[in-house]
Amino acid sequence: MHCPLHGAGTDPTRLVGRSISRIVASWHVHDGERSEAPLDVWLIDSEGDSTRISTGSDWCLIVECADPHQPYDMGEWGRIEVGEDLGEHPFLRHLGDTVATVAEFADPLTGRTLLEVGFTDGDRVRADCWEGDLRLTR
User: Fold this and answer.
1) Are the CB atoms for 105 and 2 separated by under 8 Å?
2) Fewest CB atoms less than 10 Å from the CB: which of 60, 75, 84, 111?
3) In whole angstroms, what is the distance from residue 53 CA to residue 89 CA?
């Protein structure tokens, strides 16, 4: 699933058969208000690999092998917080669960648009780019 700006990223099907041992997310905080959805989510699996799910400036969905970054301050524009217990999102309910399926969808011009991760309990989490923001749904 090649994005013209960000490249192909990583093959998320490598998650199949692995359990999710840690979940880290980043959030934008401005004037004491945290963003409704995370900016990035990192799924750290039972093999110790970290899969980052985020959005690109061209509204593609980025899926790549990358470790969580450090929190940082953006001055008057707020700060980016990074951690495991910062806010709710659909992947959190699957901490410790095994990935059963992965499906991805793409647009020929923009690359990956949707990633769906299915778990052994039958539940699925969908990640997509909604108006430039990462959207996670069940």
Assistant:
1) no
2) 75
3) 13
Report yes or no: 23 and 38 within 8 Å, Cβ to Cβ. no
Least confident segment among 40-44, 96-100, 104-108: 104-108
The answer to whether the beta carbons of residues 3 and 56 sit under 8 Å apart is yes
Q: How far apart are CA 65 and CA 102, in angstroms?
A: 16
- Dig out the tokens for 89 from the structure: 């999102």
Number of helices (H) and strands (E) in the chain: give both, helices first.
0, 11
pLDDT digits (tens, 9 = 90+) for 15-25: 999 999 999 99
Q: Amino acid identity of 24?
A: V
Q: Which domain holds residue 102?
A: 12-137
pLDDT for res 21: 96
- Assigned domain for 7 exists: no
Instruction: Work out the average pLDDT over 86-105.
Output: 91
